[in-house]
Amino acid sequence: MSEFEVAEAAVQAALDAGARYADVRVMHRRYESMTARNGDVESLAQDESVGLGVRALVGSSWGFHAVPELSEPAARDAGHRAARTAAASALVSGPPVDLVAVTPTTASWSSPCEVDPLGVSLAVKGDLLVAATRTMTEHGADLAEGLYQIWDTAKWFVSSEGHRIDQRIRECGGGISATSVGADETQRRSWPSYRGQYGTTGWELVDSLELTAHAARIAEESRALVTAPLCPVGETDLILGGEQLALQIHESVGHAIELDRILGWEAAFAGTSWLDLAQLGSLRYGSELMTITIDPTIPGALGSFGYDDEGSPAVKRDAVRDGRWVGVLAGRDSAAVAGLDHGGSVRADGWARLPMVRMTNVGLEPGPHTLEEIVAATDEGVLMDVNRSWSIDDKRLNFQFGCEIGWEIRNGRRGRMLRNPTYTGIGPLFWRSMDMLSSETVPWGTPNCGKGQPGQIGHTGHPSAPARFRNVRVGVRA
Q1: Which of 64, 207, 332, 397 has the highest count of CB atoms within 10 angstroms of its CB?
Q2: 472 DSSP 8-state letter
Q3: What is the distance between the alpha carbons of residues 89 and 81, in angstroms, rounded to a whole number?
Q4: How far, in Å, are 346, 390, 395 from residue 269 at the CA level?
């Protein structure tokens, strides 16, 4: 049987068992990663997984069952079990849940890929990481590390409403880091991000990072940070580089606008949100420079796809427009509960996990400035870049972040390097203080977003660029 035929058998079995709606995801995923340390390959991981997951809706309750087998008997049994689970839950649940309407679609979609990342030889990949880490040790790093990761996922989606969609999504990326140890300090510098850069694209992305070309510089910076002066304590103007601002968006906007958090559905583990649906369309989230979009259509960005795991097509929408909160990340059920007319943000971490609301590409629209103009317009402040640590409360409101590196800004010029730069704030007050934003946008990829019980890892994208925030508390020590 084909993947579609197996999925159709599971859907029919769920309907026969009493479900009023059912959908199935058949998934085949291959994964590969390699790490190197101090000029030697340290580890290689390769994994392959295939299976199907069935969702069945009875009344107000979902049931889910997954099996690592693509046979008709296994598929039908999975559909039957998913419906039985939903029916048992519906006995103690509320009124039936509606689903926001989606036009049934027959479609195929593939992510852009110039160079198949799994087709590149292990020798070429290993030589790249070995050369980059060796260069870092030669330039003063005590610990030099490099890695890449690759995911190649094929999906087949079928629903009882008539969807029949197949997708192939190839994702990859990598990065390097240098750590230097002093008498009282350990400092790390990374390129291009503390976890690397990732996208829904081919090996051409890793080539574009030019890891070996940046190896010497980041090693020298990690060594220099060991003896650099501490970031000063106080309130000052803060300029954030695009990589750090991407994480700021992820933590204080992306998670906050997830509708399942707002509705309290994720309160047990992932927390809730400070946002109130009654204020949707009226709340001032940030300054007029703040326009945040939810856009899974960006070519090559890590949160891109053709259709989400409910069959909703990828569509660009506003989350914040000119500083005003206007949109959320939602699924078909949560959107219906909230009285909204769109979902489109539901994905699962593999065939064995229940789909849930996840970020796609949640990022800032470009501003009118450049980083050089922002620095030149700043009389006194601190420029920080590349995340080192993060902490935010369960409502996504109060936060504190640390960065790998900072620079003192005086009279419109970048000055001495600063170590252990940190800043803290309250989400909406922080975003309302943004008064300059660069046009130099990069779609940063986050391959390690955790959510759910059991836990799921999501791949998200965050287009962002350097920006300035006024009167921010920096240099927090505790």
Answers
A1: 332
A2: E
A3: 12
A4: 18, 18, 12
Amino acid making up residue 130:
V
Given a contact cutoff of 8 angstroms between Cβ atoms, the answer to whether 23 and 163 are in contact is: yes
CA distance 114 to 120: 12
**Per DSSP, what are the bridge partners of residue 40?**
37
Neighbours of 167 (CB within 10 A): 19
What's the Rg (C-alpha) of the chain? 23
Evaluated on CA atoms 254, 255, 257, 258, the torsion sign reads positive
Q: What is the pLDDT of residue 478?
A: 63
What average pLDDT score do residues 171-199 get?
96
- Quote the tokens at residue 356: 């849930």
Find, among 248, 272, 275, 241, the residue nearest to 362 by Cα: 248
For residue 187, how far is the Cα from the chain centroid?
Answer: 26
Instruction: Give the residue carrying structure tokens 């159709």.
Output: 8
Residues 6 or more apart whose CB falls under 8 angstroms from that of 210 comprise none
Give the span between the Cα atoms of 443 and 192, in whole angstroms: 12
Q: For 345-360, what is each residue's pLDDT tens digit?
A: 999 999 999 999 999 9
Q: How many helices (H) and strands (E) does the chain have?
A: 10, 23
Residue by residue, DSSP assigns 169-180 as: EEEEEEEEEEEE
Q: Compute the CA torsion angle 267, 273, 278, 280 (nearest 10 deg).
A: -130
- pTM over 0.90? The answer is yes
Q: Is the pLDDT assigned to residue 92 strictly greater than 90?
A: no
Query: Hey, how many other C-beta atoms are within 10 angstroms of the C-beta on 39?
Result: 17
